[in-house]
Every structure is written in C-alpha cells, then in structure tokens.
C-alpha cells in the first residue's frame, strides 16, 4: 500500500518540477513552447487566409478554448492524471504479477529502425483513437462527456483541445494495453505527438484546406467540420468523420461524409442551447443529469 502513496506523492512533485522546467527552459524538445508555437502559426494562417471571412479573430469561446488547451495539455495531468495513471500502471503490473507475468510485451519493435517504430505506433494509436471516438458518440454516458467538444459553435484551432478531461482518461486507458503489448506508449515520441497536435489544430481551424488527394489519408478542416455538424445525415445517425489524424479509417469503414462545402453549416448538437457555457458547469454537466 505504501508504494502506491509514494507513487502519488512522487507523481505530483515530479510533474510539478517537470512543468516548471518546461516553462523555464524553452527548447526544441519542449512541449509547452511547441503548443504555443503551433497554435500561433495556425492562428496566423486563420487570420491571413480565413475560410469564413467574416469570422472574428477572437471568435466565440476563443479564450475558453485557449484555457482548455492548457488545461487539457498540462494542468489536468498536473492535477490528477499523472498520479492516477502511475498508480494504475503499477496496480496493473502488480495484478499481472499475481499470475507470474512480468510484462505485456508481445512484439518487441524497439529493435526496428526508428522511423518504422514511429510509423507503426502512429497508425495503431490512431486506429484505436478512431474506435474510441466512435464509442464516445455511441455509448450514452460517454456522449454526455463528449458533448463538450461538440458544443463549439464557431470553429477555430483552439477548439481542438476543448474537451472534458474524462476523455483523456478514456483514450489513455483503452490505448494502454495494446501499446504496452508493443513495448511503449506513443507519448514517448515528441515528433509523433507534435504531428498529431498540428493535424488536430488544422482540423479545427478556419482554413479551407483538404490537402488534395491526401485527403483520403489525412483528416482535414473540410472533413472535420462535418463531424461537428448539428444536423446528422440519415445514414449516419450517430455521426460521421470520426478520424483524429487519419481520415483513412472513415473511408475504409464507410463513415466518411462530405456532401458539400461545410464552410457555413451550423455546428453543435440537438438542444445545445441548453448546454452550459462556463468551465465549471461544463465539468459537472455529465453527472448533473441535465442532459
Ligand atoms: Zn466527436
Ligand atoms: Zn473536433
């Protein structure tokens, strides 16, 4: 039991020290400044070549979403996720130990060339995330948490990280076992993480981009806006375009849907007028039974 408590304490102090050193030491391996840098570049593109020309620079909920960006990327980890996940990993390993299993590695890809490791992890993680995202729409209690992401009414890059922290818990938990089976977590790789961050920012940006023929591989603003459409197509009652970084899964499994330009469609979900507009109420919404 003590080792769990020790892990919790170490997680909090370790993460706090990490966060402080990120803020105080700009550098090429630094997530904090990459998040700011990528955000500023995508925002600048939105201002220079906007898709919806009449959308204001500080669109509706700009600052709330900017707050979510830092909350979900850094603070949530500081507050609970880091401690919880460290405890969960140790508890899980202790549990496996009861059966004499010391690790889950089924395929050791650590000896492959780095580029193939990155590629493999990226594809596997993205496919798992596509499935998790579908579940967020199909399972009623998960949808209560996911509504927050869909409550954005005007799209801009910062809407990317507008989501309930419970989503982080769900995504990471589901990904943990498959990724542990190939030896490590996707977060080990700054490059993959930053690539996904950039694609995700662009997906939500006010840019009329679809990358030409690459749209069948990469998710893009013209495709993802339909994921946020308030009106759902008859053939897709739970939603469409679930892809995170890759669009390929939606094309393979018939959930891709781009009937026309989505530039000016209404975003949201049924009865979104009743969805709260402050951070505190948005956090408690899924359990407050108002949905
Ligand atoms: Zn969604
Ligand atoms: Zn989205």
Question: Gist?
Answer:
The chain is mainly α. It has ten helices and no strands. It has helices at residues 2-24, 31-48, 62-98, 114-138, 140-150, 165-181, 190-204, 221-227, 248-252, 279-284.
Task: Give a description of the structure.
The chain is mainly α and 291 residues long. Helices cover 56% and strands 0% of the residues. It binds zinc ion (2 copies). One zinc ion (ZN) binds next to α8.
Oligomer: single chain
Number of strands: 0
Outline, from the CA principal axes?
globular
Count up the helices: 10
The structure class reads mainly alpha
Helix coverage percent: 55-70%
Kindly state the mean pLDDT as a whole number?
88
Largest sheet: none
Which residue ranges are poorly predicted, with pLDDT under 50 across at least 5 consecutive positions?
Answer: none
Which ions and ligands are bound to the chains? Answer: zinc ion
β-strand percent reads: under 5%
The N- and C-terminal alpha carbons lie at a distance of: 39 Å
Which sequence of SSEs, written as H and E, runs from N to C? HHHHHHHHHH
What is the CA-atom radius of gyration, in angstroms? 20 Å
Write the layout of secondary structure elements.
Blueprint: H1 2-24, H2 31-48, H3 62-98, H4 114-138, H5 140-150, H6 165-181, H7 190-204, H8 221-227, H9 248-252, H10 279-284
Residues 149, 204, 224, 227-228 line the site of one zinc ion.
Features:
mainly alpha, 56% helix, globular, 0% strand, binds zinc ion, 291 residues, single chain, 10 helices
């Amino acid at each position: 039991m003590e080792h769990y408590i020790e892990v919790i304490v170490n997680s909090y102090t370790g993460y706090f020290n990490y966060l402080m050193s990120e803020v105080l030491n700009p550098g090429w391996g630094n997530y904090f400044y990459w998040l700011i840098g990528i955000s500023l570049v995508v925002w600048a593109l939105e201002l220079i070549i906007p898709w919806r020309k009449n959308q204001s620079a500080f669109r509706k909920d700009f600052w709330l979403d900017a707050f979510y960006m830092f909350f979900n990327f850094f603070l949530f980890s500081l507050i609970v996720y880091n401690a919880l996940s460290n405890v969960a990993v140790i508890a899980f390993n202790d549990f496996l130990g009861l059966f004499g299993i010391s690790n889950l590695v089924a395929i050791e890809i650590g000896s492959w060339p780095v580029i193939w490791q990155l590629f493999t992890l990226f594809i596997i993680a993205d496919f798992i995330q596509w499935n998790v995202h579908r579940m967020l729409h199909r399972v009623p209690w998960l949808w209560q948490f996911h509504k927050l992401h869909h409550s954005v009414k005007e799209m801009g890059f910062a809407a990317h990280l507008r989501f309930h922290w419970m989503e982080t818990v769900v995504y990471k938990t589901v990904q943990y076992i498959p990724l542990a089976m190939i030896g490590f977590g996707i977060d080990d790789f700054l490059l993959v993480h930053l690539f996904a961050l950039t694609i995700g920012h662009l997906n939500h940006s006010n840019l009329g981009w679809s990358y030409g023929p690459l749209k069948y591989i990469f998710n893009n603003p013209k495709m993802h806006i339909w994921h946020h459409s308030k009106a759902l197509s008859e053939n897709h009652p739970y939603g469409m375009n679930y892809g995170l970084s890759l669009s390929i899964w939606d094309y393979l499994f018939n959930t891709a849907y781009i009937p026309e330009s989505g530039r000016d469609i209404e975003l949201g979900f049924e009865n979104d007028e009743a969805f709260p507009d402050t951070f505190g109420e948005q956090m408690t919404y899924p359990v407050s039974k108002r949905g």
